[in-house]
Amino acid sequence: MTKVEAVVIRERVETVIDAVEEETGHVGVTVVEAIGHGQERGVTHEYRGRLFESRFLPKAVLTFVVPDAIAEAVVHAIVDAARSGNESGDGLVSSSPVQNVMHNRTGTSLEEGGASG
Q1: What is the pLDDT of residues 63-117, one digit of tens each?
Q2: Which of 8, 14, 73, 102 could disulfide-pair with 82, CB 3.0 to 4.6 Å?
Q3: Rg value, the chain, Cα
Q4: Closest C-alpha to 17, from 56, 71, 63
Q5: Measured between alpha carbons, how far apart are the two ends of the chain, in Å?
Q6: What gap in Å lies between CA 34 and CA 70, rounded to an integer?
Q7: Per-residue pLDDT tens for 16-34?
Q8: Residues 58, 33: contact at Cβ < 8 Å?
Q9: What is this structure's pTM?
């Protein structure tokens, strides 16, 4: 099993989830709201003639636990769907192997059961 984590801008969350499902058939995801910044280091806003700096930008962290066979396809689907066309700030995707993934309700291994949950 592979855990694929993606940090994306909030406006792209539904687009990314839909793309992963359409391209790989995988439907299980966990979404956590987050704030942060990368190379863009935040943004500057002007309000009523005054400048305000927002160091942290709203993001979302999406976590997918998928069979190894589709992990690369999930990563590519995320990268394509998360791209906003902005110069920076679209987020990151990473993957790592995971072991002993179990369903809390049934106690069965995700690898044995086959169904995501």
Answers
A1: 999 999 999 999 999 999 999 887 777 889 999 999 999 989 999 988 776 555 4
A2: 8
A3: 17
A4: 63
A5: 14
A6: 26
A7: 999 999 999 999 999 999 9
A8: yes
A9: 0.82
Count Cβ atoms within 10 A of the Cβ of residue 89 and give its class: 0-12 exposed, 13-18 middle, 19 or more buried.
middle
As to burial, measured by CB atoms within 10 angstroms (0-12 exposed, 13-18 middle, 19+ buried), residue 81 is buried
Residues 78 and 84: their CA atoms lie apart, in Å, by 12
112, burial (CB in 10 Å: exposed 0-12, middle 13-18, buried 19+): exposed
Mutual angle of helices 68-82 and 13-24, in 10-degree steps: 140
Q: Give CA torsion, residues 81, 30, 38, 16, to 10 deg.
A: 10
- The tokens 């969350």 sit on which residue? 13
Nearest in space to 21 (alpha carbons), one of 84, 50, 64: 64
Which residues, 6 or more positions from 47, have their beta carbon under 8 angstroms from its beta carbon? none
CA angle (95 as vertex; 117, 14 as ends), nearest 5:
55
